[in-house]
Amino acid sequence: MNRKYRKTVIAGNWKMNMLTSEVKAYADTLRASSGKVRHCEIAICAPFVMLPRLIKSFRDCRIAVGAQNVSDKDAGAYTGEVSAAQLRDLGIKYVIVGHSERRAYYGETDEIVSAKVRAALAAGLIPIVCVGETLEQRERGVTEEHISMQVKLALGGVPAEKMRRVIIAYEPIWAIGTGRTATASEANEVCSRIRAVIRSLYGARIARAVTIQYGGSMNASNAAELLSMPDVDGGLIGGASLDPEHFAAIIEAANQ
Ligand code: PEP
Asked: Is pLDDT above 80 for 158?
């Protein structure tokens, strides 16, 4: 983390878990377990149907609500889609874009990811743009090239003035939901590479200000070490965010 130049953001990704009827109890426990949040921003990214209940439950505290997906289209005949403007209208602040599960299971290409990033920014949402390599890519030594390409393609058409509102999440696919975490230095190396790509596209001032999260089996035991790295500015947390006490412990690590 480097709080002098950028925000630390801890975001939970509930994926397709939890029920609307469980939100209130979760929110009550999270509030009771987390101390005063001073040094970081917190968000919970939940399935669409739970968003109104989450907004209500976290109305009077500093926990923001995010979605896990957004349409690349503005409005119209796109059955089943949810637009960025509809999310913003509800009071949503963040949206996860290009998660590896959406890329792998729902055919999201770099082109679609880029269109979603632009749609989110146009509506005033903060996109959390996910990039990450497979185990095979890591073993073949092409992690840097792959991540650089994903970042460049996702940011295509994003003007410099909007770039400060973009968060990048480095999520090695081999670490997601596997219990296998990148070491702190592996995570920092790739996050620092991502910052170098942003520097080459937008210059040093903007690169210095962009929040770059790590995601992939981050939990209460490894969060402090990962977050102590200079280029790791927060976490995108799946499994460990489902338990409010575990999530609160990660928030506490970021709050130090
Ligand atoms: C994720 O899906 O974004 C994620 C990081 O999941 P987990 O923490 O469970 O590995």
From this structure: yes
